[in-house]
């Protein structure tokens, strides 16, 4: 059993380390880093959507992606707004009953003009 003073010292050390860790938040990510992360997420979606034949499944995955893109576009602007708008066009196309394969390919073409596909995505 530890003496009372050791327990108090351990509690003080624990509380001080927690307060140091919580007092300053992590720095806000740069727009470029957010764009790279979003691009990876979007390209992953594109590869999965190209394998999927059902429009409703693609739309469900797209709606999840769009939640993230909406928030990031609102926070950072720039090319993220263009990515979001491309996603909205894909949503509109799929909801109109356009063929999923063609719609996803148009989306991929648009995305490729905004952000290049990461090198190791197709593997």
TrEMBL record:
Signal peptide (from-to): 1-21
Source organism, top-level taxon: Bacteria
UniProt keyword terms in alphabetical order: Signal
PROSITE patterns xrefs: PROKAR_LIPOPROTEIN (PS51257)
Protein name per Swiss-Prot or TrEMBL: Cytochrome b562
Gene source species: Rosistilla ulvae
